[in-house]
Each structure stands twice: as structure tokens, then as C-alpha cells.
Design goal:
115 residues, alpha+beta, 6 strands, six-stranded mixed sheet, single chain
Length: 115
């Protein structure tokens, strides 16, 4: 079995490659500004940069799991997501409300991409 674990810290890997799949751990924003759209843009930008480092782009996304601290932010998040996602290459998507490890974080996103 050829599993590549990238960016491990003893608890988890930042990414794992297995076969033709790339799994990115859930990413959170660095900004603590209480603005869901700014936080979403930052996280989506980080995802895009990580995909680029692997020679991929957002059209290679297969699925995304989005964690929102407050589902009242769903509409504002979707405005950012809809502008970012590649038309006709939309990944399967789940969005749930979840507690965040850092109180100021409003969003966290985990994705799987095809290599």
C-alpha cells in the first residue's frame, strides 16, 4: 500500500496521498476577525494554494466538508463559495454546524481531490 503522509506533527498529517486521491486536513483561517466571508476567502485560498503545490487546481476537488460555527452564516459563506467554485466541476459537499477549537474561527473546510 503506497500511502504518503505529508506535514505530520505526531497527531495528524496536513495531507495524505493514497492512490489517485489527496486528502487535506480541515483548514481554518489565520484571521480572527469576526467576518465569515473574510475567513472563508482565506481558507479557500489556502486550499487552492495547497492544491497548486501538488500540481492540481480546484477543479480536481471531489468533495468538501464545511464546518460552520454558526449556521446563520450559511448564506454569507455560500456567497463566497459560489464565487470560488469552478462551474461544472462542483465537488460533492456537506455543510454542518460545529464547535471550533478556537472560538474566533467561524469556518473550517476539509477536502478530497483527485490526483
Amino acid at each position: 500500500m503506497d500511502i504518503k503522509r505529508l506535514g505530520g506533527n505526531g497527531r495528524h498529517s496536513a495531507a495524505v496521498e493514497y492512490g489517485s486521491l489527496l486528502f487535506l486536513s480541515a483548514l481554518t483561517p489565520d484571521t480572527l476577525e469576526p467576518d465569515i466571508q473574510k475567513q472563508a476567502e482565506e481558507v479557500l485560498g489556502r486550499i487552492e494554494r495547497l492544491l497548486t503545490l501538488r500540481g492540481l487546481d480546484k477543479s480536481s476537488l471531489l468533495c468538501a466538508t464545511i464546518y460552520l460555527r454558526d449556521m446563520n452564516d450559511f448564506g454569507a459563506f455560500n456567497a463566497v463559495w459560489d464565487a470560488w467554485v469552478t462551474e461544472e466541476a462542483e465537488p460533492a459537499r456537506t455543510c454542518v454546524q460545529a464547535a471550533m477549537p478556537v472560538e474566533e474561527h467561524l469556518v473550517s473546510i476539509q477536502v478530497v481531490a483527485a490526483i
